Amino acid sequence: MNNERCKTGFCARAPGIPGIGPYLVALAVAGPLAGASETSLFEMQELFPGRGGRNVVVAQDGTVLAFHRRVVRRSTDAGKTWSPPREIGPDAGGNTILDENTGDVMLVRPDGGHLWRSADAGQTWAREKIRVLPNGLGHGSPDGVPANAGAMQSGVTLEFGKHKGRLLMPARCQPPEGNNEVRWWPYNYNTSLYSDDHGRTWQTSTPFPVLGTGEGTLAELSDGRIYYNSREHMSKGNRFIAWSHDGGATWLDPSRCRVLPDGMRGDRYGCMGGLVRLPIDGRDVLIYSNLDSDGGHFRGGGRQKITVWASFDGAATWPVKRLVFDGPSAYSELAAGRPGTPTEGQIYLLFEGGHGGQYEAVHVARFNLAWLLEGTPTGDGQVPEFP
Length: 387
Description:
Number of helices: 2
Structural class: mainly beta
Number of strands: 28
Helix content: under 10%
Shape: globular
Distance between the termini: 44 Å
Radius of gyration: 19 Å
C-alpha cells in the first residue's frame, strides 16, 4: 500500500475544559468509543491531487473508503496507509451511502438514474439502474428537474423508530432543470432521497424549508428525529437547520444555528460542511466540520482554517471546537469509525486543503474525541459530566 506525506502526532491530553476528564471515562464505559481516553490521536495526509474530494465512508469490516470524483482509495489499517486510486466506473458520481442492512456501499447518482454498488467494501463495483420518484412539486426524477446528490455529506441507514433500516441521503433540486446560475439560486433548495428497498427505488422528499440552499448534511438522533444542517447561498450568517419526524419524508421548523458557520463569516457564499453522529450508545454526540475564518469572498482567498466542532446533546449546543488545518481549506466530509474494528473510536475528515492561497489537494485527517476535546471552548454550553 501507498502512504503519502504522512504527518502524525500523539500527545498527552491537556485538560483545559471543565468536565472533560469524567466525560471521557463515562464514554469509555457507556458506549464503544475507543480513543476517548487520556491519549489524543491526530494524523493527516494527502490522498488526491486537485479539488473534488467529496465522501469518506467506513465499511462494516472497518475498511475506510475515500472517494474523489470517479475513483476510490481504500485503507484496511484504519487510515494509516491507502491503496492506489482505482476507478469505480466511467459515469460514477453523486453521493455515497452504506446500507447497514446488507453491508453494501453505494455511490448513487440520481440525476443519471443509476448507482454503483460494492458488496466487498469497495474492492469491486457493479452498475445498476434506479428509479427516482418526484416529490409533490414534480422535482427529483431524472426526466424533469433532477435531484443532484453531489457535494453532499454521505447518507445514513436509519437506526431508530418505525423507519428503521431506511436509506436516507441529502440532495438538492435546482429549478429549472438543474440550473446553478446565480439568477436561479432563489429557486434552488435542498431535499432528501430515501429508499426502503436497498437503493433500487428512491423517493424525493418535501423541500428543505429554506430556498437558496444546497450541499446539505443530515444525522439521525437516538429519539428518531433527523437533523438537517444546510449550506445557503444568498445571505450572510450561520448554517440553516431543519428537522424531520417521519424518517426524512418531510422537513420542518427551519432556523439558523447560532454557532456553526457556513463557510467564511465575511461572505454570503457558504461552503459544504461535514456532519456525523458518533456510534455511542444512548448519546447523541455530533461532529461538524467547516471553515473557521472571518475572511472575505472565497475567490479572494477567504476560505481558510478547516475546523471541527462537537455537540453532546443532539445539536442543542456546540461547546468545543478545534482547528484541523491552518491554511486554505474548502469542502469537507466526516465519517466515524466502527466498534469492533481497528477504526473504533476514530473520526475521519476528508477535506480540500493546500498552501499559498489555494486548496489544491484532498487530504484526510483522522483523530479521536480526546484530541478534539483539547480544543477551544466556544461559550455555547459546556462539555457535560457523567457520574
